[in-house]
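Hi support team,

I submitted a single chain yesterday and got back a structure, but I'm not sure I'm reading the token output correctly. Could someone confirm the output below corresponds to the sequence I sent? I've pasted both exactly as they appear in my results page.

Thanks,
R.
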Amino acid sequence: MAFCGNCGSKMSQNDKFCPNCGSVAGSAGAPQSEKGTGGDQGSAVISPHKSSLGLDANIASAIIFAAVGILSWIPYLGYAAWIVPLVFFFMEKESKFVKFSSVTALVIGIISVAISIVFAIIALALTPRSLESIINFAMSGRSGILIFFSTLAIIIAIAFTALFIFLAFMAYSYKQVKLPIVGPIAAKAAEKLDNIKSGS
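Hi R., thanks for writing in. Yes, this is the structure output for that exact sequence:
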């Protein structure tokens, strides 16, 4: 069993075209074989090929995941890290692998930013702003709540970074990972962005 490199749908080894989107099997970025298990989830091995950006497709995809993972730790700039995969998506003309990697990084990046904003709002709401409020804050025990949310935010940020490192490694190995929940969203988003790009 294999996955379509364009939309992520299941394909048999004998299929010449994707039954869902019609992409040609064996073209640049098309999957060769399924390595993961679990229905629509798992990873598919991709044929080594060049992207239209002049880089090998695996290197381009790995750069996308690594860039978002690194930028997410830079104050303020991290909120715009999702722009990187978006730029790669619209610059790439041929490789479905690079496009899928771009949208996967985009979706995860947006989720990461949304969670960061929520924790930033919580921290802002809990942080005292005057000397008197600081004293009352420390004596009331609410400081423990702030420490809890701050620690949780750091743990989640590390988890996202670990995920980006994993995806970068898999991409460098020419393995297209379709994550639970994120994978189907990325496939649909890639199709819609392609339609916007083509003007249809």
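A quick pointer for reading it: The first helix runs from residue 57 to 71. Let us know if anything else looks off.

Best,
Support desk
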